[in-house]
Amino acid sequence: MARDIFISYSQPDRECAYELTHHLEANGFTAWIAPRDVSPAAEWAAEIIDAISAARVMVLVFSASSNSSSQVRREVERAVHKDLRVLPFRIEDILPSKSLEYFLSSHHWLDGFPAPRAPHYERLCTCLRQWLPDAPGQGVRADAAAPIAAAAPVSQPLPAAGSSRASRQGMPVSSEELRRLETRLARILGPIAGVLVDRAAAVATDFAELEHRLAAELDTAEDRRRFLQSRT
């Protein structure tokens, strides 16, 4: 189910992230947060990618912990790659690491300190009302908002792990070749690589197209070059 907002956070900030989610939902926004909204027995990485794809804004609970979290960095990378607006909500007075600064330097920031946080949550809601004036609960009739909601990204179901719809269509890609592609991509993107390989394999018509679809998932020319050259 599509939600207005994807909440990205690091585990030590869980209490703040859930408090923020509760405040957003009390103000009429819909939010997606893990692990609350991860389906039982679902593949975690696939759920994260689908939730980011379906959201309209990412709110990043930014702290020293999230600043050093590889999982948070991957989520922000995916959001930026998909042209999703990212709103960092700083709960500590720190600056982003170089790896996050690359993605966040041009984004608007909001501070969630000093305590208490409630007034900062309200400022966040005010900003989000400007970004999402048509969100449910923001004073727009459901029928008026429907055309915008219909235009939101819709995730396609992933093939089962280890399978490839493309191979059943005649593309000669073995499970071993898919595994090698996943290993190459994982060196750059981490565990999300497996989900992306399965998804690309479901629509590619030959190995070259599959490889270049995966390269297109990478954000920089240098990463794409590294991935394509790693075939040798």
In short:
It is built from twelve helices and five strands. The protein is an alpha/beta fold.
The ordered H/E elements are: EHEHEHHEHEHHHHHHH
Strand content: 5-15%
Which regions have little confidence, pLDDT < 50, spanning 5+ residues? 140-170
Biggest β-sheet description? 5 strands, parallel
CATH topology of the largest domain: Rossmann fold
Give the strand order of the largest sheet, numbering strands 1, 2, ... along the chain.
2-1-3-4-5
Query: How many separate domains?
Result: 2
The helix content, as a percent range, equals 40-55%
Description:
There is one protein chain. With 232 residues, the chain is of the alpha/beta class. The protein has two domains: 5-150, Toll/interleukin-1 receptor homology (TIR) domain (Rossmann fold); 165-229, no CATH class. Helix content is 51%, strand content 9%. It is built from twelve helices and five strands. The chain has a five-stranded parallel β-sheet. The longest helix is centred in the C-terminal third of the chain and has 15 residues, at 175-189. The protein starts with a strand and ends with a helix. The model is unreliable at 140-170 (pLDDT under 50).
What characteristics describe this protein?
12 helices; 51% helix; 2 domains; alpha/beta; 232 residues; five-stranded parallel β-sheet
What is the strand and helix layout of this fold?
Elements: E1 5-8, H1 14-26, E2 31-32, H2 44-54, E3 57-62, H3 64-67, H4 70-81, E4 85-90, H5 98-104, E5 110-111, H6 118-131, H7 142-150, H8 165-168, H9 175-189, H10 192-201, H11 207-216, H12 221-229
Parallel strand pairs: 1-2, 1-3, 3-4, 4-5
Helix pairs in contact: 9-10, 11-12
